[in-house]
Write a structure and sequence with these properties.
The structure is a single chain. This protein has a domain at 25-270. Helices cover 44% and strands 13% of the residues. It has 16 helices and 14 strands. It has helices spanning 3-17, 23-26, 51-55, 73-80, 113-123, 138-160, 181-191, 234-240, 248-265, 275-289, 312-321, 328-331, 342-358, 360-368, 379-387, 391-405, and strands spanning 32-33, 36-40, 49-50, 67-68, 71-72, 87-90, 94-98, 103-106, 133-136, 173-178, 201-205, 209-210, 222-223, 227-233. Helix 5 crosses helix 6 (138-160).
Length: 409
């Protein structure tokens, strides 16, 4: 056998010995309904509006009135000093304002990347999804974020069994995705002000109070024109995450912070969300996408060394086994994320994940009690509404679960 033949034979032998992908590994992983884990999640992507799609003949509808920050988009462009117009997309539940550039989206960057790309292709047929992923231009990438946040919205809506428009908010959620920090900073400085904007900024915009149409005179007044916005700069995310030159780090950052928007918007944002729920849900939604990129909001403080690695189960297991988890009754009452310790942030993720995985209906019942202004419940009372027990009992059940299921991970 000559040299080239030997090389070819060796390559064939290696290929033959490599384990073949199973049918399950080849399948696109679709998100599922959190209350019925064998049921595919129904994600609404239409109707939508995009000027580029309209120009390309992909949608025939007349352009709707488009305002963001309750202003015409050209006014925002001028006031924050953008040199080029942004891409603006209206999805069923979001308004997206994007200056992001194009990117290569790798299938290995997240659990649902492949299914999201296929959903994107259902809107933009020219998108080519290959074995490794897809290379998207700025317009396509903005739409991909539309797919992502609508999927997160659908999951949270199913989890809370909330079918109200925008989960009860009067107006859609607004998402500002800036490529550069300078534009994100100019936006925050111009419209919000007084905030540490080195990470994402979520802001609740209020206007006049009134009663919703059909409300009884005895019903509480709520903001009729309020909405929640999120602004983030990709360049900041890349600086904070080592090696974050691909899309995955920004995606996880957005998933984390959109979770804050959704839980705050639930039933029209009447009260502060308890810090452990706020941050626990943020980490839950980011980590179900990818465990690689850990996100800590500016309000949480600096990311501690305990939770820099992807394997949080082992960290939580060690803390519980050594009885280093502080009594839940002490920190379930905290309202500001900055009040939580670094360890309590990690424990919040584990508690929220355990509740959603094992008792999603009770978890949702607890969430819906948060904004009941007629009762104005404490954190412990909210837990009692949902689970019928005190925080100490919840903590013991969760500890038993951790010791049984996290060992050896």
């Amino acid at each position: 056998m000559n040299g080239p033949a030997r090389v070819l034979f060796s390559l064939l032998a290696i290929a033959a010995s490599a384990p073949a992908q199973t049918r399950e590994e080849k399948m696109i992983k679709e998100d599922v309904n959190p209350r019925a884990t064998t049921t595919p999640l129904k994600v609404e992507l239409k109707p939508y509006w995009c000027a580029i799609c309209a120009k390309n003949g992909l949608i025939k509808d007349e352009p709707p009135p488009i305002e963001m920050m309750r202003k015409p988009v050209p006014m925002i462009v001028e006031q924050i000093g953008l040199e080029a117009p942004p891409i603006v997309i209206l999805t069923p539940h979001f308004k997206i304002f994007s200056t992001l550039g194009g990117a290569t989206i790798k299938l290995t960057e997240g659990t649902y990347v492949h299914s999201d790309l296929e959903k994107l292709k259902s809107i933009l047929p020219k998108v080519q999804v290959g074995r490794e992923g897809a290379t998207l231009d700025p317009h396509e990438r903005a739409h991909l974020y539309g797919v992502r946040v609508e999927r997160e919205y659908a999951h949270f809506s199913a989890l809370t069994d909330n079918t109200k428009p925008y989960l009860g908010m009067p107006l859609p959620y607004e998402l500002y995705l800036f490529a550069e920090y300078a534009h994100h900073h100019a936006f925050v400085d111009r419209y919000i002000g007084g905030r540490n904007d080195k990470a994402a900024i979520e802001w609740h915009v209020r206007q006049a109070k009134g009663r919703p149409p059909g409300a009884k005179p005895t019903d509480p007044e709520v903001d009729q024109m309020n909405f929640i916005l999120l602004s983030v700069a990709e360049s900041n995310v890349q600086m904070q995450q080592k090696g974050a030159r691909a899309d995955g780090a920004l995606a996880n950052h957005v998933f984390h912070n959109v979770a804050h928007m959704l839980v705050d918007g639930l039933d029209n944002y009447l009260r502060e969300t308890p810090a452990w729920i706020e941050e626990g849900l943020g980490h839950y939604y980011e980590r179900r996408e990818s465990e690689r990129w850990n996100n800590f909001c500016w309000a949480e403080g600096k990311m501690l060394s305990d939770f820099t690695k992807p394997d949080w189960e082992t960290i939580v297991f060690a803390l519980v086994r050594r009885e280093k988890d502080a009594p839940f009754a002490q920190w379930c009452e905290k309202l500001q994320p900055g009040e939580l310790s670094g360890i309590e942030n990690g424990l919040s993720w584990s508690l929220v994940k355990w509740m959603i995985d094992t008792e999603p209906v009770r978890f949702a019942k607890m969430l819906h009690s948060m904004h009941d202004m007629s009762t104005n419940l404490t954190g412990a009372q909210e837990i009692d509404v949902g689970f019928g027990v005190a925080p100490s009992v919840i903590q013991q059940r969760w500890r038993d679960y951790v010791l049984k299921n996290y060992a050896g991970k």
